[in-house]
Structure formats: structure tokens, C-alpha cells
Design a protein that fits this description.
single chain; alpha/beta; Rossmann fold; 2 domains; 7-stranded parallel β-sheet; 7-stranded mixed β-sheet
């Protein structure tokens, strides 16, 4: 058994990772750190964990050595103390944006300040198994992923690998998100209660997750906009891409199948009949699945590509657990078998 401690464990991502630990045969909860809730039971902020025998929250100063550290802190906090954390655990996964980018210049451009420990950027592996599976095997330090970047990258990756994109046109991506991202703090450590609210665009241009899309796809002429809609969980990316002249639907099927046919958590959803012909983001609540799809307008060579995920799972803690399995050489699907609910 490997012991896992969570720093910033009162937030949504921390709560999700705790839920996943309770269903994992090789992991057990060690400490859960929260300055605000120290001394209080976990069920105070994670009521879905009431029936589990879990420790109380403890102060940051009480953190001791463990096997795995999950850092679910506000952006900028993990990098400030990374040397300390590295001395306390053999494996670290940071769920913030502190170590997602491999270039300190890009970090400063997108996050508005210099990285305090740029020498650590190259030590972290970007934690998207569909991209970095081999690098993740046996890794000691892994970064989390941006949920909007994950949905966008999974939607566009087949086009990039198959070299189908017409570079003469911009790529625009509209991401619909739930209130657990758009209606509360964007910090992985946020513990503010969420409620579904009015539809609103909260990042029309220049969203920071664009940097991760640049890094993974190599695409420069790409533009993300985010809108918060009436749901709590979820991120659904709708990408408008122009493909090269002569590209057929058969070419698109071939591209998607080549990339995703062996991926355990990516499903191509493109049905001709029934009520669920394309990805439905609510059906993914609580799961680590990403559902992808596409439609081609042959008259204009425009493709609309879709990727839907649960932002707290495939966009955060679920992918982190998938990474942790790879880091220890376990089956990457362990602890992630929840299939979702229907109806919902």
C-alpha cells in the first residue's frame, strides 16, 4: 500500500482525489492538509465521503513524509515550496498550473509573473496520458492538466497527427463549462460552494489554457473562449477547424481511430440514430472518460470537432490518478472504473 497525502485537500479536486483513493486497492489516505479546516472532519466539506473512515484535516505545519503528495493548491503556491515538498515524498502530482508549461518564458507570458523555480519545469512530465504515456511510466514528478486544454487537445490531436489542418485559417474553440470551474474560484484548492447560475462568458479571449494547447499540438493560430452554463460539472469543447482540400469523412474516421482505438478512456461517439448521437457532457459526471466526435462540411472543408469531459475528473483528479497508476507501473485503469449515470 502506498500512502497519499493531499495538500489543499478541502477543494473540489482534493475531494475528488480522496474519493478515488477510497476505491483504489493499492492506496490509502495519509494526511489531508487544510489551514482553514484543520482539526475538523473531512465530511464537513466533502459530505459524499461520510461513510469512509478518514482522518481529520491537519495544519500545513503538521505535514510529514509520505509516499505520494498531491498538491491541490492555488496557482503559484506549489512552485514556492517545491524543494520542501520534494523532500517529503517519492512521487508528486501538482494539480495547479505551476509546472504544466515547459518554458519559463511562456509561463510568464500567460500567467503574468516570472516563475519562481524555473529549474523545476523540466523535471515535471505533463500529465496527459494520451500524449505522454511512456514518459509517465516511472516518473517522480507530474503536472496536472487544464480541463479546458484537455478537452481541446483531445478534440484536435487526431487532426494534428494526421496533418489534416489547413493552416490558412484560424482555429476557434468554444468551451462550455460548469459552475465548478466557471462559477467559483478557478483554483484547484477552491472550496467555495457552487450553484448553477446564468449563462455567461467569463473568458472571451486569452484564456491561460491556450498555452497548454500550443505546447501539446504545436498549433499557434488557435483561439479559446469559455462560457459558463447551467451545470455544475463538465467541460465541452467545440472546435471549428478547416481541413485540407479533398479531406473526406473516411479520412477523419481513420485519423480518430488511429489515435484513440487503444485509449482506455477516450471514446469516439458518432451515431446515426438514437438520442445520444454526439458526446453528452452530463453523462460523463464522475467518470474519467473523454467522449470525442466530429462532423465535416465537405462544401467548405470545415470540421466541427467535439470533446466532452468531467472537468474535475478527466480534467483534473481522474487524469491525475491515471498518471499515478502509470508512475507506479500499475494498470492505468485501476480505481477509475465508474461508468457514469443515466439518466442524469
Amino acid at each position: 500500500m502506498k500512502k497519499v497525502s493531499i495538500v489543499g485537500g478541502s477543494g473540489y479536486a482534493g475531494g475528488e482525489f480522496l474519493r478515488l483513493i477510497t476505491g483504489h486497492p493499492a492506496l490509502e489516505v495519509d494526511q489531508v492538509i487544510s489551514r482553514t479546516y484543520a482539526g475538523q472532519p473531512l465530511k464537513r466539506v466533502h459530505p459524499h465521503l461520510r461513510n469512509f473512515d478518514l482522518p481529520t484535516f491537519v495544519e500545513p505545519a503538521a505535514l510529514h513524509e509520505t509516499d505520494v503528495l498531491i498538491l491541490a493548491l492555488p496557482h503559484g503556491k506549489a512552485q514556492a515550496d517545491i524543494e520542501k515538498y520534494a523532500g517529503m515524498a517519492e512521487k508528486i502530482i501538482d494539480l495547479s498550473a505551476d509546472f504544466r508549461l515547459d518554458d519559463a518564458t511562456h509561463y510568464e507570458k500567460w500567467y503574468g509573473e516570472a516563475h519562481s523555480t524555473p529549474e523545476w519545469l523540466e523535471k515535471f512530465v505533463y500529465g496527459l496520458p494520451e500524449v505522454n504515456r511512456e514518459k509517465l511510466r516511472g516518473a517522480d514528478y507530474v503536472s496536472g492538466v487544464g480541463c479546458n486544454a484537455t478537452a481541446t487537445n483531445l478534440a484536435l490531436r487526431p487532426f494534428v497527427i494526421a496533418d489534416l489542418i489547413d493552416d490558412n485559417y484560424p482555429i476557434t474553440v468554444e468551451v462550455k463549462v460548469g459552475s465548478s470551474e466557471g462559477g467559483a474560484s478557478n483554483s484547484p484548492g477552491s472550496h467555495h460552494p457552487v450553484r448553477s447560475g446564468a449563462v455567461r462568458t467569463y473568458a472571451a479571449v486569452g484564456h491561460r489554457h491556450t498555452a497548454e494547447v500550443h505546447q501539446i499540438t504545436g498549433l499557434e493560430n488557435i483561439h479559446l473562449s469559455l462560457t459558463s452554463i447551467e451545470m455544475v460539472r463538465g467541460a465541452s469543447a467545440l472546435a471549428h477547424v478547416f481541413v485540407k482540400e479533398g479531406t473526406t469523412e473516411k479520412d477523419l474516421w481513420k485519423a480518430y481511430r488511429k489515435v484513440y482505438k487503444k485509449e482506455p478512456f477516450v471514446r469516439i461517439i458518432k451515431e446515426r440514430h438514437g438520442n445520444y448521437r454526439r458526446p453528452e457532457v452530463k453523462l460523463l459526471s464522475g467518470t474519467n472518460y473523454a467522449d470525442v466526435s466530429f462532423d465535416l462540411d465537405p462544401a467548405t472543408n470545415r470540421v466541427v470537432a467535439i470533446a466532452a469531459i468531467d472537468n474535475l475528473m478527466k480534467g483534473a483528479s481522474g487524469t491525475a490518478m491515471q498518471c499515478l497508476n502509470l508512475m507506479y507501473g500499475w494498470d492505468e485503469e485501476v480505481g477509475l472504473s465508474f461508468s457514469g449515470l443515466h439518466p442524469i
